[in-house]
Amino acid sequence: MSSACDEPIGVTPAGAAWLASAGTYPRSTLTLWEERPHAPVVLPCGSVFDIVSAPAMFGRLMLDRLWGEGPGSGPVAAFRGRTLLFSAPGTAQRLPSLLEWEEWSADGRRDGRAGTVPPLLCHGTGDAVTVPALAAPPSPTQNSTRWMVAPDTRHPWLPGPEILLWAAVRAARSAVRISISPPQDQDAKVYDVSRRR
Q: Are 88 and 158 in contact (CB under 8 A)?
């Protein structure tokens, strides 16, 4: 199944200006991108955006929930097996406590039917992340950094901690596999009857 997130997407000039504004020297970043549009750049978090980094498949489920049932998302990137969700500044500080309060930590379960939220890495003030290049590389590799939803305006809408909590909970619920078999008795003896005559 293919979606809009599967298409290679480039960053608009307004989106590039927004990304560059996160750094100490925005004009230098824009100059670098003019010279090397296929170069990823490390940018600080905390003032213009925070990043919530989820395992790739779970991040994709969160993104599906945000677009299918929710308000959409801000920019989203794929980086080394993780999905990077750009979020409102302050999200990195607040989201972990919301997950803990809701008992959706990686080890906790809200109820017997719910799945768990895998570890979400939250990058905020004092952290820096690698963002994809403005344009997709000429020969992308499987682990290359790429935009799933590229920045396209000078002031993109960014989800806050409550919206990402909602998306994580919905994604965890959608990932649950329901079994129609009763749970196995862990102390039961198992016999191989395949060789019976």
A: yes
Lookup: tokens for 129: 């992340």
Our measurement of the distance from residue 180's CA atom to the centroid of its chain's CA atoms, rounded to an integer in Å, reads: 31
What is the residue extent of each domain of the chain?
41-135+144-175
Per-residue pLDDT of 68-101, as tens digits, reads 999 999 999 999 999 999 999 999 999 999 988 7
Q: What is the 3-state secondary structure of the chain?
A: CCCHHHCCCCCCHHHHHHHHCCCCCHHHHHHHHHHCCCCCEEEECCCCCEEEEEEHHHHHHHHHHHHHCCCCCCCEEEECCEEEEEECCCHHHHHHHHHHHCCCCCCCCCCCCCCCCCCCEEECCCCEEEECCCCCCCCCCCCCCEEEECCCCCCCCCCCHHHHHHHHHHHHHHHCCCCCCCCCCCCCCCCCCCCCC
